[in-house]
Amino acid sequence: MSDVGGGALIEQLAPDVAAVAAGLDERDYLADRGLVTALFLAVRLRQPLLLEGEAGVGKTEAAKALAAWLDVPLYRLQCYEGIDAGQALYEWNYQRQLLAIRLAEARGDAIDSDDLFSRDHLLRRPLLQAIEHAGPRPAVLLLDEIDRADAEFEAFTFEALAEASVTIPELGTIRATQRPIVILTSNRTRDLHDALTRRCLYHWIDFPAPERVLEIVRRRVPGASEPLVLEAVGAVGRLRSLDLAKPPGVAELIDWVGALAALGLTRLDADTAALTWGAVVKNRDDLDLVEARGADWLVTADA
């Protein structure tokens, strides 16, 4: 396996941490120096990076922004309970195989297993797509919410990534010519195995500081008025001070400001907040807690 050519191209594009920060900024992703450094090392060392943090703080968006800046494909595997190797690697296209059999029968041709189990009949899933990606730059492989999968799938996935290859019994071993840049995300619904975390770079993404939150929302919802953005950021800060099961993240804040702007608001008022706080509060118990405090509390800066 060789990724020398791709590595040289990456070194030119990402010579240092500052270049990565500037590249992400071009894609409207504002990251602190710790996250930028972690992403730089993942790119240059080609070592998997595990990003953890609360939901909505930008873990998935970090991988998307990195792939967009590097101008490489992003192969995203959304993990869930019960996911297996078929969803991660490949499956055979049984419908296409059946069609090939019927066409051969109609023509009176013979057909054997080599005809049925060929690359033409392979359904490639994200892990195999990332391994097969030929470059010239390495692809970004995002294993999103790896904590939702079970421990066996976690172990299988990381073994395949460690080897940067996969064996398909009918076709043989497929090895990567460009080892992918791998980013894993976790919301900590369960602890990941030590064997995985030991082999990854690690970074915890906190909810950003208020000034960074303001800039993120300004960029993501450019049509929103400045007073509305300021008031919505303050309101979410008050929500996060409560003992919520699911504190709103930056993603929810962006959605809320977008909804308020779509309603034509230039300032946040209590009535509209009460009608729309479902954009930021996504849990019934949390909603009861917020409603008990009241919309006036939510929108009052000196509360």
Structural overview:
With 303 residues, this protein is an alpha/beta fold. The chain has 3 domains: 4-83 and 125-205, P-loop containing nucleotide triphosphate hydrolases (Rossmann fold, 3-Layer(aba) Sandwich), CATH 3.40.50.300; 90-122, no CATH class; 210-296. The protein contains 16 helices and 9 strands. It has helices at residues 4-13, 17-26, 33-45, 59-70, 85-88, 94-107, 113-116, 126-132, 151-163, 194-197, 210-220, 226-240, 250-262, 270-276, 284-293, 295-299, and strands spanning 49-53, 74-78, 90-92, 122-124, 140-144, 165-168, 172-175, 181-186, 201-205. The strands form 3 sheets. Strands 2-5-8-1-9 form a 5-stranded parallel β-sheet, with helices on both faces. Strands 3-4 form a two-stranded antiparallel ribbon. A hairpin with a 3-residue loop joins strand 6 and strand 7 (172-175). Helix 2 crosses helix 3 and helix 12 (226-240) packs across helix 13 (250-262). The radius of gyration is 23 Å and the shape is elongated. The termini are far apart.
Task: Provide the CATH architecture of the largest domain.
Answer: 3-Layer(aba) Sandwich
Order of helices and strands: HHHEHEHEHHEHEHEEEHEHHHHHH
The neighbouring-strand order within the major sheet is: 2-5-8-1-9
Number of strands: 9
Summarize model confidence as the mean pLDDT.
88
User: Distance between the terminal alpha carbons, to the nearest Å?
Assistant: 61 Å
Overall tally of structural domains = 3
Determine the strand fraction and express it as a percent band.
5-15%
Helix content: 40-55%
Structural class: alpha/beta
Rg over alpha carbons:
23 Å
Rough outline: elongated
CATH class (first level) name of the largest domain: Alpha Beta
The CATH topology label of the largest domain is: Rossmann fold
| Annotated CATH homologous superfamily of the largest domain | P-loop containing nucleotide triphosphate hydrolases
Residue stretches low in confidence (pLDDT < 50, at least 5 long) are none
Enumerate how many helices there are, as a single number: 16
- How many strands, what sense, and barrel or not for the largest sheet? 5 strands, parallel
